[in-house]
Design a protein that fits this description.
The complex is a heterodimer. By secondary structure, chain A is mainly α. Chain A has 13 helices and 2 strands. Chain A has a two-stranded antiparallel sheet. In chain A, helix 3 packs parallel to helix 8. The two termini of chain A are about 40 Å apart. The model of chain A has no long low-confidence stretch (mean pLDDT about 85). Chain B contains 9 helices and 19 strands. In chain B, the strands form 4 sheets. Chain B has a 6-stranded mixed beta sheet, sandwiched between helices. Chain B starts with a strand and ends with a strand. The chains are: A mainly alpha, B alpha+beta. Chains A and B meet through helix 9 and helix 10 of A and strand 6 and helix 2 of B. Chain B: GO terms for molecular function: ABC-type maltose transporter activity; ATP binding; ATP hydrolysis activity.
Chain lengths: ~290, ~325
């Protein structure tokens, strides 16, 4: 009897929170679904009409869609590769006993705490600016022509900014993994005659398989929706060169004021995220099984 | 061949002197146990021999060659760790064969040797399992397999049985001893358990506070302990120590008698009088903890059953030939 009462009480007390969360999620989703079936343009108010799947056809056949899908995948893939390939050696370095290790760690983590808009502004105006940027100054110092990053290599520039932001996250997760590696295992490998490199390949790397998987999964979720960095630096351009799916949806809704098409795009993005997640879990999720 | 000699080996971590000059001669094929209380430096000494720590001074000779500057893998030793340190993502086969693979042996030869080692240790059915799918005893055997497959000059064991339950520990103790005799390879074994030391060793090194207190066969240590520390450490239950007037009559600062060398008399008037505080009846043995007034608590052991109980009055008569005498600084007096 007591258990039943407790259970009832627990449910009753949980209901407001769960209900609020449910409404919070379901209302926008339902509205998005509803809008995606309407002809709904802010430039043409009062003309809302049911158009079926027309918005989806429009969004998916838009040449900008394929371009932005490609940009999204290139952005996600490159940032993942950069953060993991640089994160592993960084984590290995930070695992070494050096003087001021705690300060070094704090500095390495710092970029993660900088707002995306701020870091994008810093990169745009202080580092990558073709006239007054640090990189331009460095290039001139050695007699090279400065690169106009956001004109000549806009996607690469965005990738570098986003990778810089996510590198601390990857490094931190990999560092904690390294610290949990049993010291005796390394010593056993040493007794077994493994060189530092073999020890890394056969002992350390397999040990890090699981944290690497975690980094890939978590980063992918956030990288599919990169927006602020693009908005602040390139505004999706030049042309469509840095437009990803998130930015395309934004431009549909708030540049072209086509709410119906933007809603359809939002749902397409949900589907794409699920497809990516499906493949990711199949490819790397095996590592998560104990 | 696996003859290991230590000459004035020292180790300090910063200002802390862990090993204060160890000299030791370990004959080829012998089973030597390092024993001592925790923090006495026994594991450090083993790691120095293995090469996992660098010595601060002195020489380590393996077959006459100083190996102080030789990396661990080149010393020709193999080690069994306390945590086993198996590679979790490799199968048993991979674990045992890892050292051979690193040494650049061909796949066929590696497989042949791994299978031979597995057969010796009854691990053949488990070769393709991962360590997490094995029981504690099996993991232990894999760790030993990893050590024997490389045919080392000597095995180093770092408290390898401390993670096993009591029954398995006794069984593995016998297995390890038998395997070592069968292979004829020198073995150095670290433990804090003096029963393990007494049962397994050809020779025991008793360490205390970074110093070697005594080096000898188990019975030498039992019968002729060099000092108070060894006398108290070897033997279970502990030796009884008596100081004061009784000791002075024997010309010593302290005298010691093992519990099994005290004759128990019910209504005796000679010897040391006392009242039983606790009596433990094991069937095979009877342990009496006797409150002997000014002499303190004394322990007596009787082989077999003795129907005495708490509160009974007894007198304990030490066997004269079995009394150990020690001087003020704790060293044994002989003759």
């Amino acid at each position: 009897m007591a258990t039943r009462q407790t259970q009832f009480l627990a449910r009753a007390l949980l209901t407001p929170a769960v209900g609020l969360l449910f409404i919070w999620m379901i209302v926008p989703l339902a509205l998005t679904l509803y809008f995606s079936t309407l002809h709904y343009s802010l430039l043409d108010p009062g003309s809302e009409a049911f158009v079926g799947l027309e918005n989806f056809r429009y969004f998916l056949t838009d040449p900008a869609f394929l371009a932005s899908l490609q940009n999204t995948l290139v952005l996600v893939g490159s940032v993942l590769a950069l953060t993991i390939l640089l994160g592993i050696p960084l984590a290995l370095l930070m695992d070494q006993p050096v003087i001021g290790r705690n300060i070094v760690r704090l500095m390495v983590i710092a970029p993660f705490f900088v707002m995306p808009t701020v870091s994008a502004l810093v990169w745009k105006n202080l580092l990558m600016h073709p006239v007054s940027g640090l990189f331009a100054w460095l290039a001139k110092l050695v007699g090279l022509t400065p690169i106009d990053w956001f004109t000549d290599a806009p996607l690469l520039a965005v990738i570098l900014i986003v990778a810089w932001q996510w590198l601390p996250f990857a490094t931190l997760i990999l560092l904690t993994a390294l610290q949990s590696l049993d010291e005796e295992q390394k010593e056993a490998a040493e007794m077994d005659g493994a060189s530092a490199l073999s020890s890394f390949i056969y002992i350390t790397l397999p040990h890090m398989a699981r944290p690497i998987t975690v980094v890939i999964l978590i980063e992918t979720i956030f990288l599919l929706t990169v927006f602020a960095e693009i908005f602040v630096t390139t505004g999706g351009g030049p042309g469509l060169q840095t437009t990803n799916i998130a930015f395309l949806i934004y431009s549909q809704a708030l540049i072209q004021f086509d709410v119906g098409s933007a809603s359809a795009g939002g749902l397409v993005a949900v589907v794409i995220a699920n497809i990516v997640a499906f493949f990711l879990v199949r490819i790397v999720g095996r590592n998560l099984e104990a | 061949m696996g003859q290991i000699t230590l000459q004035d080996v020292q180790k300090s971590f910063g200002p802390v002197h862990i090993i204060k000059g160890a000299d030791l001669d370990i004959a080829d094929g012998s089973f030597v146990v390092f024993v001592g209380p925790s923090g006495c430096g026994k594991t450090t000494l083993l790691r120095l021999i293995a090469g996992l720590e660098d010595v601060s001074g002195g020489k380590i000779l393996i077959d006459g060659k100083n190996v102080v500057d030789t990396p661990p893998a080149k010393r020709g030793l193999s080690m069994v760790f306390q945590s086993y340190a198996l590679y979790p993502h490799m199968s048993v086969r991979g674990n045992i064969g890892f050292g051979l693979k690193m040494a650049g042996l061909s796949k066929d030869e590696t497989n042949r040797k791994v299978e031979a080692a597995a057969a010796t240790l009854n691990l053949t059915p488990y070769l393709d399992r991962k360590p997490r799918e094995l029981s504690g005893g099996q993991r232990q055997r894999v760790a030993i397999g990893r050590a024997i497959v490389r045919e080392p000059k000597a095995f180093l064991f770092d408290e390898p049985l401390s993670n096993l339950d009591a029954a398995l520990r006794v069984q593995m103790r016998i297995e390890v001893t038998r395997l070592q005799k069968q292979l004829g390879t020198t073995a150095i074994y670290v433990t804090h358990d003096q029963v393990e030391a007494m049962t397994m060793a050809d020779k025991i090194v008793v360490l205390n506070g970074g110093k070697i207190e005594q080096y000898g066969s188990p019975l030498q240590l039992y019968e002729k302990p060099a000092n108070l520390f060894v006398a108290g450490f070897i033997g279970s239950p502990k030796m009884n120590f008596v100081t004061g007037e009784l000791a002075r009559q024997q010309g010593a600062a302290t005298i010691g008698v093992r519990p099994e060398h005290l004759k128990i008399e019910r209504d005796g008037t000679g010897g040391w009088q006392g009242t039983i505080a606790v009596a433990e009846h094991l069937g095979s043995d009877t342990f009496l903890y006797v409150d002997a007034g000014p002499l303190g608590m004394l322990t007596a052991r009787y082989i077999g059953e003795l129907s005495l109980h708490a509160g009974d009055h007894v007198s304990l008569v030490p066997e004269p030939a079995r009394i150990h005498r020690f001087d003020e600084s704790g060293n044994a007096l002989r003759g």
